[in-house]
Amino acid sequence: MENAPRLELRNVEKSFPGVKALSNVNFSVKKGTVHVLCGENGAGKSTLMKIINGIYQPDKGQIFMGGNEVKIHNPIEARKHGISMIFQELNYIPEITIEQSMFLGREPVNKFGAVDWKEIRKRTLELMKQEKLPYNPETKLKDLTVSDIQMLEILKAISYDSDVIIMDEPTSAITNREVEVLFGKIAELKAKGVSIIYISHKMEEIFRIADEITVLRDGSVVETHPASALDIDTVISLMVGRKITNVYPKEELPIGEKIFEVEDLTHEQVFRNVSFNVRAGEIIGFAGLMGAGRTEVARAVFGLDPFTTGKIRIKGKAVKTTSVQASIENGLVMLSEDRKRYGIIPVRSVKENVSLPNLNQFIKNGRLKAKKEFGTVKAICDRMRVKTPTLDTSVDSLSGGNQQKVVLAKWMLRDPDILIVDEPTRGIDVGAKYEIYKLMSELARDKKAIIMISSELPELLGMCDRIYVMAKGKITGELLKEDFTQENIMKLATRG
Ligand SMILES: Nc1ncnc2c1ncn2[C@@H]1O[C@H](COP(=O)(O)OP(=O)(O)OP(=O)(O)O)[C@@H](O)[C@H]1O
Ligand SMILES: [Mg+2]
Predict the structure, then answer these.
(1) Predicted pLDDT of residue 18
(2) Out of 19, 135, 447, 462, which could bridge 280 as a Cys pair, Cβ 3.0 to 4.6 Å?
């Protein structure tokens, strides 16, 4: 059994009502390697991982660890077999503290059999010190940022001393610096013989760490190869079953008058003297490191957060009070980065999620035009390649990336004059990214103004007419097309 794979799945199948999520999957992971799993949104990646972690039971098929068949009925059993998992969706309990979360379900007990809080405190503090994290163990999760919570989840999964660690899109919400920390940890784990299964839609990232790559499409394994035998274009065409040549379909368009202007916007401690403008037909970008203040500025102009001083003008008219309601009435909408918190309406259907904020388009003489509603929603969902059994399916049962697409579809239908998108392609597969870029281009052609906040430099460089760079709450520079390079952005992003 020495040469048996660390983990092997044979002929695994899994169906959900209306969907065959996995069919006849064979997948094996060698000791001390990073095995990357790629595939479009809804291809079955998370489902396969949840089977390994005991959250779902396969309808058919077997799991082997080191050559021995195992049955895994729940995550606790998975952990006993040496498997731990970092989940794609951050499902945290907002009211618990960092130390409670770190030891949830594995609390050490003292000699009286009670939870040993002193030990928990001690071990949490040790971990914080070792990882140079500035948190107080008593801080509640709800007071942390999404990236902090994700980083703690990563550290927690690593601290289990596992043989196999599953990482389902671990970098979708952490900063670039934290990505480097994670990659360093992955190298250490590999050296210790730990196997890692890694899911991501970020191609550059995949090729930095992968030893082997398996591509899933529509629930089946397309191919498995050593990473050295593949390149980005090949993986993309294996994933989507076609070639995507022009990744950034940006058009050169005549730029109109300024339709959105922000002057000297300041919110003490958060951002200072932020001024920028967007013209009709223009796509502008906001670059910067996480925490530079880009999201905070966007939230303030949209009316989600207050600001102390500053002016906002929409189509030349000064905006007197900012509120989400007023913004929407003025033709300004924003797609938030944390879609779990602000984006989807859980339990409701895909159709309702897309149409509810746009109902006025479907109501005539006080009656809902159900056919028109259905047709419009279906068209936009098809366009964005939302993978769902029906439009009446509850949005919660969609894969992570497909939930994101639903939120995007809803705002695209709104037909805004000014659209702010915060990390619009996070967690979205390459095929759908391309559709989102095309939609943005079309909006620009219709003389809309678009503000894109993104941490993916290639997409900013590929899609924008101008890029503002922020660092530490200030705009440190504005780049025109001829100065577009990753180096120029990074120089400005690390200034201040
Ligand atoms: N609990 C569930 N109930 C019903 N259908 C589900 C459930 N979980 C997943 N599915 C369906 O199974 C299919 C595979 O979903 P899965 O979450 O595994 O995709 P994925 O490859 O992880 O996609 P993404 O990149 O978007 O995260 C999808 O069609 C999804 O709608
Ligand atoms: Mg997934």
Answers:
(1) 86
(2) 447
Which one of the ligands is nearest to 406 CA? 1
- Residue 216 CA: nearest ligand 1 atom is 21
97 Cβ below 6 A of ligand 1: no
Contact 113, 87 (CB under 8 A): no
Q: In a 10 Å sphere around its CB, with 0-12 CB exposed, 13-18 middle and 19+ buried, how is residue 224 labelled?
A: middle
For 116-120, 321-325, 335-339, 377-381, which range has the lowest pLDDT when averaged over its residues?
A: 335-339
For residues 280 and 222, state if they share a domain: no
The CATH number linked to 290 is 3.40.50.300
**Closest C-alpha residue for ligand 1 atom 24:** 41
In terms of domains, do 265 and 362 share one?
yes
Neighbours of 205 (CB within 10 A): 17
Nearest residue (by CA) to ligand 1, atom 27, is: 400
Asked whether residue 1 carries a pLDDT value surpassing 60, the answer given is no
| pTM score | 0.84
- Structural domains of the chain, count: 2
Q: Residue with the nearest Cα to atom 16 of ligand 1?
A: 44
Same domain, 292 and 354: yes
pLDDT at residue 251 in the model: 86
Tokens 């048996």 belong to residue = 4
Computed over every residue of the chain, the mean pLDDT equals 91
Amino acid identity at 406: V
pLDDT tens string 217-249:
999 999 999 999 999 989 988 998 877 767 888
Counting ligands in written order, the one closest to the CA of 41 is 1
Distance between CA 230 and CA 222 in Å, rounded? 14
- Locate the ligand 1 atom nearest the alpha carbon of residue 50 and give its number: 18
